[in-house]
Structure formats: structure tokens, C-alpha cells
Description:
Cofactor (chains A, B, C, D): a divalent metal cation
Binding site for NAD(+) (chains A, B, C, D): 57-58, 62, 131-132, 161, 172-177, 231
Number of helices of chain A: 6
Main location (chains A, B, C, D): cytoplasm
Number of strands of chain A: 18
CATH class of the largest domain in chain A: Mainly Beta
Protein name (chains A, B, C, D): NAD kinase
Strand order of the largest sheet of chain A: 7-6-18-15-9-10
Oligomer: homotetramer
CATH architecture of the largest domain in chain A: Sandwich
Enzyme class (chains A, B, C, D): transferase
Largest sheet of chain A: 6 strands, antiparallel
Amino acid sequence: xxxxxxxxxxxxxxxxxxxxxxxxxxxxxxxxxxxxxxxxxxxxxxxxxxxxxxxxxxxxxxxxxxxxxxxxxxxxxxxxxxxxxxxxxxxxxxxxxxxxxxxxxxxxxxxxxxxxxxxxxxxxxxxxxxxxxxxxxxxxxxxxxxxxxxxxxxxxxxxxxxxxxxxxxxxxxxxxxxxxxxxxxxxxxxxxxxxxxxxxxxxxxxxxxxxxxxxxxxxxxxxxxxxxxxxxxxxxxxxxxxxxxxxxxxxxxxxxxxxxxxxxxxxxxxxxxxxxxxxxxxx
Amino acid sequence: xxxxxxxxxxxxxxxxxxxxxxxxxxxxxxxxxxxxxxxxxxxxxxxxxxxxxxxxxxxxxxxxxxxxxxxxxxxxxxxxxxxxxxxxxxxxxxxxxxxxxxxxxxxxxxxxxxxxxxxxxxxxxxxxxxxxxxxxxxxxxxxxxxxxxxxxxxxxxxxxxxxxxxxxxxxxxxxxxxxxxxxxxxxxxxxxxxxxxxxxxxxxxxxxxxxxxxxxxxxxxxxxxxxxxxxxxxxxxxxxxxxxxxxxxxxxxxxxxxxxxxxxxxxxxxxxxxxxxxxxxxx
Amino acid sequence: xxxxxxxxxxxxxxxxxxxxxxxxxxxxxxxxxxxxxxxxxxxxxxxxxxxxxxxxxxxxxxxxxxxxxxxxxxxxxxxxxxxxxxxxxxxxxxxxxxxxxxxxxxxxxxxxxxxxxxxxxxxxxxxxxxxxxxxxxxxxxxxxxxxxxxxxxxxxxxxxxxxxxxxxxxxxxxxxxxxxxxxxxxxxxxxxxxxxxxxxxxxxxxxxxxxxxxxxxxxxxxxxxxxxxxxxxxxxxxxxxxxxxxxxxxxxxxxxxxxxxxxxxxxxxxxxxxxxxxxxxxx
Amino acid sequence: xxxxxxxxxxxxxxxxxxxxxxxxxxxxxxxxxxxxxxxxxxxxxxxxxxxxxxxxxxxxxxxxxxxxxxxxxxxxxxxxxxxxxxxxxxxxxxxxxxxxxxxxxxxxxxxxxxxxxxxxxxxxxxxxxxxxxxxxxxxxxxxxxxxxxxxxxxxxxxxxxxxxxxxxxxxxxxxxxxxxxxxxxxxxxxxxxxxxxxxxxxxxxxxxxxxxxxxxxxxxxxxxxxxxxxxxxxxxxxxxxxxxxxxxxxxxxxxxxxxxxxxxxxxxxxxxxxxxxxxxxxx
Lengths: 283, 283, 283, 283
């Protein structure tokens, strides 16, 4: 098996983990290159079998963008902390990577969303996101207003600090902070969640991912921006409309057979943790 | 075209609407029977072409249960108020029903969920729901605890006043009151939403409807119950486990081509209504 | 110093804690009686100096009701778990109780609310609550409707599963499960929080505790009830109106100088716990 | 009676309203000056009896800052839309202003909060706010972290897009969009509400307004700012600590005897509006 990897070796603990991984892989897999920082790894399509990302969920998010077009699955190795995406641990390589190196692994397909921001100058910004597209206002209190359409059908307008459209993968990121629901991995849907909406009655909406979402800025302010996976791709004041739809591609990730998405929720977000109430309940 | 209908003619405005409908249908469709109150209309399978429900969303909810097995689509006629399910208006029959009587209509398939409550005495209560399965505690402060599994994978435990598992149709009913998201009609998912959970960190979870949800009561109290579309089907203290899964059947509803689900949200729930802020925004 | 105590000695760990406490108190304080289960301890006014409650927050809630009229402060001793009210630990008596037995302690005054439920038969149920008055519907989906007035000024009507009116002490109990805010101890306010409201736009309201809150049932169902600190005091269908106002009395509790209310929030409710995000933040 | 007024007469409808007001006031009150745009009107202390603000709530917010030190109450006149602060209508001057010009009016005291941002260069920014102090992060996903203390007691840290500390007046503004509770006017409290917190378990906290709130930036990003009533007063990266406490002054506003704060909530925010459910309830 041939593999590329992504590791920010300027970080000491990552460099150490790379050493551990290299030793472990010796004689089992051929390590081609550290692609960290490369924008595009499509040239490894058909050459590498898998990509290994050493770091946390943030590292995988970056690698996912580089791997678009390469069509190879990624395995995320964390350094001590379970992640939503970095499901394997550098401390327990032997538990799973012997099998992975033999090509025995299950792949989970993660929904990707394409975003096209059509600008007033006639150009179009195109980007693909694994987590979310967020439209954020600039300085506070300068609320922005947008119109939302789903499959050309007007849905509602939204006044507030902005809006997030997330994938199931991204539902546990910014969406969750904004009050959105958790969406399980295999649901074919995206969620539209407002950011500090002025309307008391606005609620997140879960929409079939095969639908096309259009967002039209009505009133914006300086500093408002369109962001994909946390990176600004356009100033909102230059944008005429934003189209978000399912990407024909998926991001493929090698899943850990010993861990469920619920484990990660409980561990990372302390989701649904019980209070120290027991005594009361007994009384 | 042959049709059955559902109408609670003891209600004066419903009786009047039936008269209006009868007159309008004369010579265009053959009206077979008022099936209101009948538990099962499966004998009309292959005989009636459609079912017309005259009343509000609640009437359609009841009719949906009767029509299981009949396999005919329903058209809901409201009396003045747009509904999520009762999409047609008695005041504008001519706009849509000429076409419907000619068999020209689009059908929307609504996800149904089956619930099996396995009881300690070995019997099983089975029911099908269009909106939701709700597990509710009895008198307040006697909180209940349940374990939740999805496809045999432990998800979390839930301590509080109960839990709701809803379909997209039911997402705008009890689920919404409990803080859950709106789920668009064609999303293949159900939502698990806690009722007044003790955990500060519990959030609604949207799960693929092809998954099987199991709920195990851990500690319950007198008066706790399992409810399908608002009807109690079992006392929770008699129940060992509750299995919820997608029904192989759908509820088919004739949709109004001039109205979207977003219209109903805006009208019925005053969803996403803007505040009277305009003046401020201009300043 | 003379003291009474409250301890449910049928519970083994409570009985053991009582023994530890008795030994510790020997020669330092005179222990008069175990008042557990007594409804009224007003006869100890002027006789006992303090009341010691051995148990959790639930035990103190019960003792608070018994101590109305006695006018003596209570010290809560938990058995291993910090509580909002049970601030002292049986394992560290020497740290605080030597001082307490010498009369050196600070007292925190907790707001109590009086509730008068005026019944249709002309009688009035009166009760005093430390946590909250909750009005709950019976079986699910049989939503209830109430009109709320503050100082005779109509505030709003509320359709849903009910309503909670809580003190600052009770803000971390049922109110929090229902989505209400945390109210710090010394705020002179109560919070009105709806239970699963039908209105998307309902929000909790914090009201000056010197105001009088009136609640009028508009439509109720069998099984709806009025509850004070978790105990049913009236069936809602028998009730014409419910008046809630600040009690002229307070519940006095001896506070732990080494612990803040924020400690209890962080410990008991895992309030504001950070996710395991650190790695991401560094990236 | 002598009065000053605030009116942005560049706005046509405001200029027209000023004319209506002038005519109405002729012979009843002496109009001194349009103070719109003036930063400080303290020189009118003892000279003018009241200030009249013609515009919406935003206009009054601006005027409130100018009137600090003048010690005269303000009456807000809206142009067609009821406001929280602009309680009188230009269309119904005769209903209330004859009495007001005779000095017969009730004044409502609004809590003001002082904010001191101590900067790393040793200087201090001081500002007084009627609505809120908001600390906001810059570009999205660059979350910030702050430590919060109340009366020198550590409360919690907060990771997310920022934090809002609001007065009761401000509770219906940014705080409400961020999920905070409504706080009635006469409650002596402020509310600390997080903006898109990373912690699932963070809840708004209502704190006695006599307490001192200290906020310490732990990790910030470029573009993070400290804002008072929507105006940026400092870049967060230059700030060492932020102290928020009750101002010894109040903002005095002439209240409309025919309108309650609940009316404004229902009108402006469509608070607690019932859904179009009636039909269902009847069924």
C-alpha cells in the first residue's frame, strides 16, 4: 500500500507522532510524501491508496480541501484526544493500522457542499466545504438581511448576524454553537441555521441535500463576508447571490470500527452529560 | 373518479363544508361514504381513488391512521385556515378540484414510523405514526430516565420529562414546542428531541430514517406513557423496550401546487417573522 | 448551641453520616431531635439555634417547608456531592462546623414565593415554595392555555404543556430544563418560563419579585395540576386563579465561605464546560 | 415648560413630524433647540425641563448618551410604530402631551451600566450604556476566550463568538437575538449572555446589578472589539480587562400611561404569538 500524509511537523508533538507512525509503517506501507500545506493533491489520484492525516479535526478539514480530486480516502490520527474526524489514536496504531495497511477498512462518505458566490463584477467564487458555509456580518449591531430560497421557492428572509448552512459533518461545529441540531452522518441533508436572528420565531431548518439553496443579500454592511470552512472567500458587499448545493464528490474517511459518532459526541462535546443529580433522584 | 371522505359532521362548519363540497363534486366525482370514525378503511383499497378530508390538520392525522392499508392518497380541505396537511381551501375548490377529479394531481409521500412497545407480559403494542412517538413522564418532577440506541449502538441516556421521536411531518408539531428543528418534508430522517432534559448539554439529533431506534426505560414513574400521534398506546411502567423504525408504507397526500411548505410555516407558526424593527434599521 | 436536624435514617449512608455528625458535635453542640418527616417545626422557634440537614438538595427542600415559621437557619450537609443548597460535606465537618457551633457563620437569605390557588368551590390552597410553582398539563398533546397577569396588567397567554414560575434558587432546577436562564441568588426576581410552548416566539421573562403574578386557566384537561416544589397542591380543573407573590419570610441558609454559587453550577450542572477543542484552537 | 428636542430632520418623515409637534406645542411649551448630533447636553441641566426625541428607539438610544449629565427626562415620539422606548405617537399628541406640558407625567428610571476598558497602554476607555456592552470576535471561526468574574469571584470562562452584558432595557435587543431572557424594567439586574458559545451547556446568567462584572480576554483575534450600545469603543486586542457596573445615574424616560412593556413586546417582537392552531385545539 502506498500512502501520502499530512502533518504540520513544525508542531513538536506532530513531528513526534510522525516518527512513531513511520516506524510502525516500516515494511508495511510505502510512505510517499508529506502533503501538508499543498493546496491540491489531485496528482496522487491513482498513485496513493490512502492519505493519513496526523493532527486533530482541524488538520483533516484542511487536508479534505487538498484531497478534492485525488479520490483517495483519509485516515485521521489524533494525538491523545478523540475527534469527530480524527478517529484513530497514535497510541493505538497496532489496533487498526495493520488491517488498514492490508486494505481492510470501511470508508464513510461525508457529504460535501459546493458554494458559488456570484459577484457583482460578473465573476464567480467557487469553493467546496466539508463543514459549512457561513455568512457573517461585520461589526456588531450592523445586522444584515438575506433572502433564502430552496429550489427557487422563497423560504424566508433572515435579519441578524448572519446564517450558517452546514453538512452533517459540520453540524457539530459552528452550527451547534448557533443552536442548531446534531445531524447524524448518513442523513442526506443540510441545515440552515440563523446567527443571532432578530426574529424570535426563527428555527433551524433541515433540508434535503439534493435541493439547491440560494441566498440573496438584501442589506449588508462593510466587513460582512462569505466563509467556507472558516476561510473567507468573498466580501458580502461584492456578492449578488450565493448558491449552495451538494457536491457530486464526497470526502471519504476511513472509519474506526471500535468507535461510533455518539462516542465522539459524548467525549468531545460532553453531549447529554447527566448532572450530579443522582442523590436527588434517589430521595 | 370515486372518493371516500372524512368529515365530523357533528361540527356545524364541517357539515356546511361537506354540503359545499357535495354540490361542487356533483357530476364530477362519485362520493362513496363518510368514513369518519372508522378505524380501518383498507376495504376501500382498489375501490376508491382518493380520500378527501374535510377539517384541519388534526382531522387528517386521524384519517391517516384509518387509511393505512387502503393505499389511496388523501386531499385535505381546510375551512379558512391553511394547514400543514390541509392544504386546500373549501372556499377555492374550483381552483384545484376540477383537476384533482380528473386524476391530475401530484402526490407527496409522507414518512410514517412504526412503533413496537414490547411489554413485560410478553405482548407487543404496535402502532404507526405520522407525527411522532412521545414518551412522557407522569406528574411533574418525577423525572424519567431512558437509554437510547440507534442500530444497536448506544447513543446516550436521557433524564427528564421524556422524549419525542418525530417524522418530518411531525417536526412542526410537538417537536417544535420542545425546541427541535424544522425538518423539510423530503428529508429521509427522524428527529430525537428530549423533553425538558436535566442535562444542559442535550441537543436534538436528526437520524437517518432507515436506522432503528430503540428506547429502554431505566427509571419510570406511575403515569408515564408511550404516545403515538397524541394517543396513549401503553403505560411506560409495563414496557420493556420501544422500537421505532420507518414504516414500509407512506402516507400519500395530494399537494397543493400553489403552496409550499414554507408558506404553511410562515402562516401557521408565524415562523421567522420579522420584528417591527424597520425604523431602527434605517436610522 | 442547640440544634435540630433532619435526616432520613432509613437510608444507610444517611444513618452513617448522622453517626459521624453526632460524634463530631459531642461536647460542642446540643442535638435536640431528628425532625425528619415533621411537617411543621415552628415550635422550635426560640429554642433551637440552627437546623442541620443531612442529605442532598432534595432533603433541604423538604426541610425548608418544615422550618417555615421556626425562623432558624439551616446548614446542609451532603454526602460526597456538592449541592446548590447542601454546601457542606460530611467529610470535612471540622473545616466549618467548629465555627458554626460557635455561632460564627454567614446566612444567605433565599427568596420564598407564596402561591394561592383559588378554587371554584370557594376554598383556597396556600403553599410556600423555595424552588418553583409549576402548572403542568396531564397526558401529552392535551395542551393547556393560561392567561398571565403581572400586577393586574395582562402580559400574555400561554398555550403548551404548562408554565413554571421559579425563584433564583429554583432557577437551576426545573426552570433550567425548560430552557430558562440561571438567576443569581441575590437578584430580587422570579422567572416565568413556559413548558413546551406552542408559540415559537415565547421567551422566559424575569420579573421583579415584588410584583404579583396571576395565572388564569383558560382551557385545561384532566390531569393538569398545580405543583409547588414538585408536590401537587391542586388539580388545575378545580382552580379559578393562581396568585404567586413574594413571601414575607425568607429561607435562611448557612453558606459555605469556601464555595460560591458558580462552583456549584460548574460541579452539579457541568455548566459552561469547555469542549475538548483545545487542539483545534491551537492549529 | 421648556424643552429641547432631538430630531434628524434630514429624514423627511422626521422633519414632518417636527412640524406637527411644533404646531401642537405652540403656546403650550417653549422649544429651545434641536440637539440632534450633539454629544453632550449637560449645559441644559436646570434650563430645559424635558427632552423630546422624535424618531424610533434608535434615536432615543443616541439621545440617552447625549443627555447623560443633563438630568432631564426624555419622551420618545415614534412615527407610526410603537417602540420599547419611543412610547408616544406623533398621531396622538393631544392624548398625552397636554398633560406632559403641564408637568404631569410619570418617569421610569432605566438602569445604565458603566464600562471601563483598561488598555494595555495604561489608558482607560470609559463609556455608559443603556442597552448593552458586547464583546465580539472578528472574522468568523476565530473564536475568542474570556474569563468572567463577578465581584472578584471567578464565574466561568467563555469560548465562542463573544459575550453580551445587557440591562433590562437591552434585554429585548441583542441579548434576545442571542437567546437571552426578557428582563422586566424594574428588575435590578443585568444579564450575561454568550454569543454562539462552544460549550453546549452555557446558559445566560442574570446577576444583581449591584455586582461588579469583570471580563478578562484570554485569547482574542484581530478585529475583536468592545462595543457599547452598538458603537465600538476599543479593539479587544488592546484591552487588558473590562469592568462593567451599574451607573450611579439612570436614564429617565417619560412613560405612556396607556401602554405597558408587555404591549411593546407583543407589538414589536410579536412575542408569545399564538400559532393558527385554534382549529386543532377544537377538534
